[in-house]
Amino acid sequence: MTNLTIRLRQAMQPWRTAPAWRIAFSGGLDSSVLLHLLADWAEHEELPPLSAIHVHHGLQPAADAWPEHCAQVCARLDIPLDIVRAQVAPGASLEQAARRARYAAFAERLGPGEILLGAQHRDDQAETLLFRLLRGAGVRGLAAMPGSRSLGCGTLLRPLLGCSRAELHAYAQNRGLAWVEDPSNADERFSRNFLRRQVMPLLAERWPQLAASLSRSAGHLGEAQQLLEELAEMDLLAARGVCALPWLPLPSLDVSAVAALSDARQRNLLRHWLALLSRMPDSDHWAGWYDLRDAAADATPIWKLADGELRRAEGRLWWLSGEWLRPPQPLDLPCGALGEPVELPGNGCVHLAGELPRARWHLRYRRGGESLLLPGRGHRDLKRLLNEWRVPAFVRPRLPLLFDGGELVAVANLTQAPGMAASGVRLHWSPPIGDRGLSW
């Protein structure tokens, strides 16, 4: 049994009870070695069901032959293969766009608890650390590739991170493996290729243990990132506080609790909180957070990020995305009984609990100047009532209002006129939830 085999089995031992192991199989050297190692293991021991996934981007003519190569390899090893044709969205970085398309395809095909096995190795880890260092990454980025992380409904696992490219190449040659070569790997216009072909060999001449040392540093930085995340979780627990509007399903934090932390802990907390909601800003863009935090109490500052925006209202930070970034369509909906939820274009859905008596019922949004009769208080201006209830300004134009002719009789989720309350009728609004964040 080779050292490569031993290290693979040690890395995979905690995952032996997973429902399935699926190999990200490009047909290249690294994934070919991983596929053969697992196939050989499966011949001698009972493992979770093995299968492979090949993502075909179609970005270059040479790639058209790779699915057939992968199919032949998997057929010889009796391993099922799923060939996925992915569309790469246009963008500034072709590498990044292809990676996003690839991992999106993997995530869609992973069942609950299943493991996707990637063949990245120690040299890849070293290159990733150096590449991100040159781009000015922080601790999270410099931790490079984690050994495992969640992906879709399952887990992405990289069991060969402790192995060198030379070890994989020697194994492939000894076993007589055939693999495909990606012509784009020789194109030094891509930064990763330039590092791999020009910079890393030069550094390794002076520091022969370069890849091992950089990989070890990535491990230390990974531990540091874990500590930062644990600190962020502690701060997040205190900063969530209690929202006065439990029916509003938006991520939010208590501004004063966040502002009480040091600037470094504020940034650490917000990076952690926003990680699943948006791509993070670079260092210069954090000025938007300080402007938001330090604005006057009566101001309505906005911090725009890649996938949404943060607003401050009623003492809290609110994350808005998706439909919340677009004004709702005008509403003037005649209605009788709304026992079943009714979709409001771009604004969630609404329904009535109870039965309305005969009248001229209409659902509308605010137009200004509305007032509502309240028990023991007479008519009160709706604007002042919304201030009392601490409804954020960005919610107010979306609140469904129920009118009897021209008279306001109910504000969804908040209150209704005495006659409505006595009848047991309640107007319920389920607001839009926004985008559910990043999946990988």
Q: What is the CATH topology assignment of the largest domain?
A: Rossmann fold
The number of helical elements comes to: 14
Helix fraction by DSSP (H/I, runs of at least 4): 25-40%
Radius of gyration: 28 Å
- CA distance, first residue to last residue: 35 Å
Class derived from helix and strand content: alpha+beta
Q: What is the CATH level 1 assignment of the largest domain? A: Alpha Beta
Question: What would you give as the CATH superfamily of the largest domain?
Answer: HUPs
The order of strands across the largest sheet is 3-2-1-4-6-5
Strand content: 15-25%
Number of domains: 3
Mean pLDDT: 90
Q: Name the poorly predicted regions.
A: none
CATH architecture verdict of the largest domain: 3-Layer(aba) Sandwich
Shape: elongated
Quick recap of the structure?
The protein is of the alpha+beta class.
How is this structure best described in words?
Belongs to the tRNA(Ile)-lysidine synthase family. This is tRNA(Ile)-lysidine synthase. The protein is of the alpha+beta class and 440 residues long. Helix content is 38%, strand content 19%. It has a 6-stranded mixed sheet, with helices on both faces. A hairpin with a 2-residue loop joins strand 5 and strand 6. Helix 5 packs across helix 9. The longest helix has 31 residues. It is elongated and about 90 Å long. The two termini are 35 Å apart.
